[in-house]
């Protein structure tokens, strides 16, 4: 029987600022990517988010980003290999602190925003992240973009002894090459709940997706990334999970 | 035979900014209090400092501070109990990340600057720090000001199951009550190397110090705090250590 | 005929984070207190907010705060007189940059959060703010808490050649001494729109308010502070303004 | 008679951190590029630096940078045009605050580090800076790299109505194309004081420089950038100025 993990970025509030419907979404996912205080999040948000994940039986992954709160970690920054590796150790270590106070450990690492995107295309960034995670513990898996674009990062993670977990995006269009269609392309981001749920189901059951040409292509993924920052996020996530489980897919953490 | 620990604040450089003669001082101390990126330090400085400490056989303690790099953590900030506890977990966790990459663990926690000073006089601050450390690991000792003023903090740490290590300051004058003389008082900060070395020796051998009235009072301390941020710091630290060892005091970490 | 100014904190969003219903509230107020990037706000938010104010004919005041985005400027920080004065010059100068690009000038200064509260009780804070504003331009008025508690700050501003504009809070309870009732007291914060509107009207027309004992006391105020951070903020602000104007009070900037 | 401006980055200290021999260098230069609190500097450093410049009759220019204190503004950050323009308005405005308290105005703008370098090669960055400065006051000149590489930035500044002041680097090697030789090339950075002084003299007197092939090429420059962050900085700057003045070059601000 097929199984799939559902992950979502969590804990991206900061001080008095609220982003994300964390309380509503958490019960329906299996892996939380928790911001570590650099692009978003703060110690009290991290504590609250880890506690909530533990209460809901959700896995606690680190979601490290660039040191750019003003840009929410979505702006590329030119960090050296050493700076990248140390930035990962710092942020993963900080989240691990909160995990340890709840008697659990980091379940995975998923880089955020521009750091994630650049890891897929820039070998220095990929190596910085991979060596950072591996230097802490090679038992911590890294989430990597499914499809052709993620293969380089996947190789580098494996060279560092790390397990790679490919992730796909059911609400994003895929090109015939198996890459995410650029957001500027019409239809690049799906918003129809039933279409997203159907795509999620095909990804989980068949490891395939319908590309922008209408053809069905392979997309190997162990986890699906869902979005938690819209008002309808919880409803959407619940409906995706329900569609998966009704069809016999087991929803569980990797 | 008597023994004493020598601690010094380390890793307080930040980006292109250099503070402290870390390379020169490290070989002569036994415990490093390593800044955690809030009041000072950054991930690359932390990595460098932990590595240097490991190479020199020096213990790696966390030196958490207020989130105030502009004020170097020396300005009081009114954080709530929860904010304090979580700030400790965050910073200790981050440093622990670097320790773990070198196969070691945090040896102790010593709060920095205004956070340290306020912990001695404000029960909320003391509890925030103590619960933060205890929630990570009760095996991590906390450095507390020797003398009357530190007793409250010491009690709170012990209530949280933590070991307390009292520290004295050989370059600071003590009042008859056993408190640090305010810096505004003439002679509050000693600068003569041989006087500082002698005071350090009396503290280590006799657990006593000559107060501002010229009387000898008791001061229970397991560690002595030395300063590493002057040009002559390394010379001074080396001479203190030499004076201690020549007199038969064993200099070793707690 | 009586006139009154209506002020509201604006531009407190930051990067991807949104706070405040600025677009909806702006058309109904006469003075905007615009965050300057320290406790909240960023350059793009400042530009957007100044432009919006100009388009709506609303005055653009500076709303400087402590350098504490994590605490939203609501946590006391122990800054020296020089640090305070320079923090004011920096933040007011930065906002003035955006004003100048729109051909206008800073209309007033209203300190934010803990900085405002401390200015009313701590002479060093009051002097730091007053000298900072005066060093830029003594033609810039400062908003000061109406009632007994604000008298010291008012005196210090006047000693620095600054005009003082007293502000009252129609949604806050007042003690018989003419001070704000502490938020912990039941009924300290009014939420009933018609009660708030009535209190605003009495403040504007009679310079009086009903205190927590039910007596009517004097409260001299030229501006009323309204809140823009709740979902119903715009409706409430519009209804207050409507009540004032229907009763013949002229709503205009000071 | 020939004249030349000597500029130097100033005010790059931050809190307890000291960088640059500002006090020693200031008397010998004619234009100070003063950091604005983003990549370096803080309000108290800015106040101190502006005051010192005024006392020495040195012009006060703004030295804005990326919001990256950890990287000292030397790491590229991918800001949008609007973010760049607003970052310039913010930082120039903040420094202008301190200038206004001393009865003077901003004399020029020189972007810092990665922002400067990217302005020379990326049209969006150049436009963001130029429009930011022009929106404040087209009377503020912008310092632009002399030689081929700066022509695009120069054109964009002029299109925005701004005066361009080309600057050359007497301690840097130039390629035959009139560009700075990459720092990785041997001999790219000159350290011999008399060689630097001679190159400065040829730049000022003849508007020429000896390139890496040993040929003399034209380099149009109205200002020379000197460095103030080494222990010998003041001696070097004084000797350059002395060489220029002895040879009859008038050293004065642009």
From TrEMBL, chains A, B, C, D:
<dbReference type="GO" id="GO:0005975">
    <property type="term" value="P:carbohydrate metabolic process"/>
</dbReference>
<dbReference type="GO" id="GO:0005524">
    <property type="term" value="F:ATP binding"/>
</dbReference>
<protein>
    <recommendedName>
        <fullName>5-oxoprolinase subunit A</fullName>
        <ecNumber>3.5.2.9</ecNumber>
    </recommendedName>
</protein>
<keyword id="KW-0067">ATP-binding</keyword>
<dbReference type="Pfam" id="PF03746">
    <property type="entry name" value="LamB_YcsF"/>
</dbReference>
<dbReference type="InterPro" id="IPR005501">
    <property type="entry name" value="LamB/YcsF/PxpA-like"/>
</dbReference>
<keyword id="KW-0547">Nucleotide-binding</keyword>
<keyword id="KW-0378">Hydrolase</keyword>
<comment type="function">
    <text>Catalyzes the cleavage of 5-oxoproline to form L-glutamate coupled to the hydrolysis of ATP to ADP and inorganic phosphate.</text>
</comment>
<dbReference type="GO" id="GO:0017168">
    <property type="term" value="F:5-oxoprolinase (ATP-hydrolyzing) activity"/>
</dbReference>
<comment type="similarity">
    <text>Belongs to the LamB/PxpA family.</text>
</comment>
<dbReference type="InterPro" id="IPR011330">
    <property type="entry name" value="Glyco_hydro/deAcase_b/a-brl"/>
</dbReference>
<comment type="subunit">
    <text>Forms a complex composed of PxpA, PxpB and PxpC.</text>
</comment>
């Amino acid at each position: 029987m097929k199984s799939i993990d559902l992950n979502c970025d969590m804990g991206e509030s900061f001080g008095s600022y609220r982003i994300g419907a964390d309380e509503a979404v958490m019960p329906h996912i299996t892996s939380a990517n928790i911001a570590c205080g650099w692009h978003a999040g703060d110690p009290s948000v991290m504590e609250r988010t880890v506690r909530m994940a533990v209460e809901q039986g959700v896995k606690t992954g680190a979601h490290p980003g660039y040191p750019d709160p003003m840009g929410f970690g979505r702006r590329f920054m030119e960090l050296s290999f050493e700076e990248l590796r140390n930035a990962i150790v710092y942020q993963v270590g900080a989240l691990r602190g909160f995990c340890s106070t709840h008697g659990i450990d980091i379940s995975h690492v998923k880089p955020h925003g521009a750091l994630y995107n650049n890891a897929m295309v820039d070998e220095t960034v990929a190596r910085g992240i991979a060596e950072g995670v591996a230097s802490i513990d090679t038992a911590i898996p890294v989430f990597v973009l499914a499809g052709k674009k993620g293969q380089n990062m996947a190789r580098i993670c494996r060279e560092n002894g790390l397990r790679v977990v490919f992730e796909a995006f059911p609400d994003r269009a895929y090109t015939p090459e198996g890459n995410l269609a650029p957001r500027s392309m019409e239809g690049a981001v799906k918003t129809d709940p039933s279409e997203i749920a159907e795509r999620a189901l095909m990804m989980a059951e068949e490891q395939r997706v319908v590309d922008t040409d209408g053809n069905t292509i392979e997309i190997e993924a162990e986890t699906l990334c869902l979005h938690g920052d819209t008002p309808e996020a919880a409803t959407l996530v619940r409906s995706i999970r329900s569609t998966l489980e009704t069809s016999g897919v087991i929803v569980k953490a990797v």
